[in-house]
Specification:
The complex is a heterodimer of chains A (about 350) and B (about 200).
Chain A lengths: L2 H12 L5 H13 L1 H18 L8 H27 L10 H18 L3 H5 L18 H7 L15 H7 L2 H10 L7 E3 L5 E5 L13 E4 L2 E7 L7 H39 L3 H22 L2 H22 L3 H18 L1
Parallel strand pairs in A: 2-4
Antiparallel strand pairs in A: 1-2, 3-4
Helix pairs in contact in A: 1-3, 2-3, 5-12, 10-11, 11-12, 12-13
Chain B lengths: L2 H25 L3 H23 L2 H18 L9 H22 L19 H6 L3 H10 L3 H11 L5 H8 L3 H18 L4 E2 L2 E2 L2
Antiparallel strand pairs in B: 1-2
Helix pairs in contact in B: 1-2, 2-3, 2-4, 3-4, 7-9, 8-9
Classes of the chains: A mainly alpha (about 350), B mainly alpha (about 200).
Amino acid sequence: MKCNQIREQLNAYMDGELKGEAGKRVSAHLAYCSQCREELAALTAVDEFGRIPYVDDPGDVYWKRLNRDISSAVDRASGQRVADKHSARRRILPLKPVTLRLAGMAAAAVMVLFVGREMLEDNKTIPVYAPLPVIMKADVAEESMEEMETVKEAPAVKTESRTQEKMQAAPEKSVRQREAKKINDVDLADKDEQDAVSKIVLRGAAVAGVEKGKMYTVDGVAAPVEAVPAAAPIPAGVHQRDRRMAKYSTDIHTTQTDSLNMQIKALEGDLQSNGELHNVRQIRMKQARLHYDRAHQLMTPEAIREARLFYVVYGEWLTAQADSTVFADKRRRLDFLVRTIEEK
Amino acid sequence: MTSESMVQKLQNMINDREDLRWVNKARRGDRRAFDKLVLKHQKRIYFTVRKLVKDYDVAHDMVQDVFVKCFQKLHQFDGSHAFYPWLHRIAVNTSLNYLKKEQRRGEVLYTDSEALPDSGGETPEEAMVYGELAHAVEAAIGQLSEPQRQVFILRTSEGLQYEEIARELSISTGTVMSRLSRARERLKNILEPHLTNKSIKV
């Protein structure tokens, strides 16, 4: 058998995919052909390259962040599942591509108009969490921001989680620990004996504008706010850790963050020149990530607000587009950060 | 069997047991047990995902999705096998689904035989100047075309068989073979300087 015929089969041979006679033939050839042996050795070495951990270890700070993000994504998913089951409210309307594209453009206009602080500062009443299909109403941007304040009426909804019940019963200390552990904890929904969300107890920092007795929506479930913490001592575990991390990363990334902003703007330019739907989607996704990273690295109110605004405007759409729970989760995280800023 | 590999085996067994205990607890609604599973496996899952999807941000999001899926499907997990392979499967599937979707959306138009121009990153040559093998490898793998890269990683890092790869990517085993051999050939040429005496030179 000729060497070139053998060479064609070397890959399959080394992967153990060459069965029976064919394998034996290659073995026999290799026994006397040193050139083919060398070739095989080279290919094997290439595979060794593929197996070395060539992806950099991003380091402990990153692992912690990842862990936290996973934890809140799972929290959110488990909450969302409950909401999905019981309320028809969270359906995302099927839109035609053209509509989406227009919506995206209209929303882009909104961005241009409103990036900055006035809007958010005026709008102090930020509810706990209100998943809103902003993008569906992109043509009425101002209303969409107001919609954040809307109170939805919904029947009490059953939930599955038992951990929360336990949490409630547990002594305060362990509740605190838990809060410190999970930065992005929803820490809002409380429940009564019937295992239904009947009231919201704010455990975290005080939220500006949230009043006792008023109705607010959590994960699509509306309930009155039962208790509001007083002076908000709790940014403790939650907020401080963010700060610490932010400090750490600002040292390193100051220049990088500026370039993040530039990248965001450059992408906006790309959008003007290329408005195909898949490009819009991709660019918006990129911008969302850049915004989020930037907020995280700078940790300034402006950066956080800008990022949040972006997620408010595009979050729902992106979630639908990217088929991922992550955008909504980041949005919620930014909501939380804005709340802590405002309460300061 | 050497005593060392016996120890290894035993450790694996203990490891798997621990996983199963946590899985059972998590199934009963214990979030802390699930968090433990996350903490234990997140690194490996991250590396698996990262190798497949390349992009750091996408990988970050993807890992979250993987664990969310894992959480949601936990009741389907068959406790008679180890947990990690099951989780790993979810990670590979999620990554591949993402890649398929990206491809279908036509954002990147691949051709099988042509490598895409490396967008901005280091060239393998540059990386080698710094003498960093890991970077050189990353850059080299980055030079493969997307389909080649996928097949190569599924085979080497993830250890899948041809048939499995074919199923995952919805291609024929013949295509798997040709992509794999082209990928290896290309890597061999790029990494030639690192290949001496038939082994890796660091």
